[in-house]
Amino acid sequence: MSYPGPVPPSQARERVGPWMDLFSKLIYPLACRSCDQALLPEGAGDGLHRWLCGRCLNDLVRVESPYCENCGEPFEGAISGAFTCGNCSGRRFAFDFAISRFRSEGPVRELIHDFKYGHDLSLRSVLGQLIQEVLDDPRLQSEQLGEWVLVPVPLHRSRLRQRGFNQSAEICRALSRETGIPTLDALSRSRQTDAQASLHRADRLENLRNAFVLRRPWFGAAPNLRERKVLLVDDVLTTGATTHECAKVLKRDGGAEKVVVITVARG
Ligand SMILES: [Zn+2]
Ligand SMILES: [Zn+2]
User: Fold this and answer.
1) Ligand 2 mean position, distance from CA 90 (Å)
2) Could you tell me the distance, in angstroms and rounded to a whole number, from the CA of residue 259 to the centre of ligand 2?
3) What is the predicted pLDDT for the residue at 184?
4) What is the tens place of the pLDDT at every residue in 204-214?
5) How far is the CA of 169 from the centre of ligand 2 (A)?
6) Distance 103 CA to ligand 2 centre (A)
7) How close is the Cα of 245 to the center of ligand 2, in Å?
């Protein structure tokens, strides 16, 4: 695997808004972003140590092998070789495969909840750091990821107004800053859909049908993804119905060659 590497700090500052990051440092100078316990002085830690205390780092639950080769669902027990889970049997996803690095429990669950529903935008950096671990997946190791593109799952504009930001787009930007892989805001959500959690599987698929389109700018052409490889980014993957619909549009309408779904957590 290779990707361009972190964006130099001078460029990163221009892209992410220096005041927002400075503001978050002033509020949380040296505290664990999950439990607020004091951290070592800045600079003593790197990677996730910059954001989380030792106890919270220990409480992270990673999705370890064996997991479903399609949707990333972990399997309790021993299996040798590739396998497909019950969620995927009889289904063909439009994405090539999905990978989540953490289970949606403990600190990861709380961080995502505070990010989305507590509107704590400053958590995007730690979530960007967490999702970066999916790039260690053996299936991505041989790829030139610098030639891929990160695409966020879009929010409908009414939800965007309500939340103030798109959590997937913010995680995308943080990951892009860490890795140098470019981001392309290629999709938009053409209609608001009912809450997926309240629906049965067949209704979920119907609910999302044609909910996504390629983003059409006011001026110029729609994004050209022809023969591009895409990392489709979301915070949590549950059934895969949303990312399936997004991948369908990226391939059918955008011409993408490959779409791999990456999420921070597996719900
Ligand atoms: Zn902690
Ligand atoms: Zn599966």
Assistant:
1) 10
2) 16
3) 95
4) 667 777 889 99
5) 25
6) 15
7) 16
Give the ligand at the shortest distance from the Cα of 87: 2
From the CA of 229, how far away is ligand 2's center (Å)? 21
| pLDDT of 199 strictly over 70 | no
pTM of the model: 0.86
More confident call, 149 vs 203? 149
User: What is the pLDDT, as a whole number, of residue 122?
Assistant: 87
Residue among 238, 213, 95 nearest 157 (CA): 213
**Residue 175 · residue 132 · CB < 8 Å:** yes
> How many angstroms does the Cα of residue 30 sit away from the middle of ligand 2?
39
CB-based contacts of 202: which residues, under 8 Å, 6+ apart? Answer: none
Ligand 2 centroid – CA 240 distance (Å)? 9
Torsion angle, CA of 169/171/177/178, rounded to 10 degrees? Answer: -150
Instruction: Give distance in angstroms: CA of 101 to centre of ligand 1.
Output: 19
pLDDT (tens digit, 9 = 90+) per residue, 149-196?
999 999 988 888 888 999 999 999 999 999 999 999 999 998 776 665
Q: In angstroms, what is the span from residue 127 Cα to ligand 1's centroid? A: 14
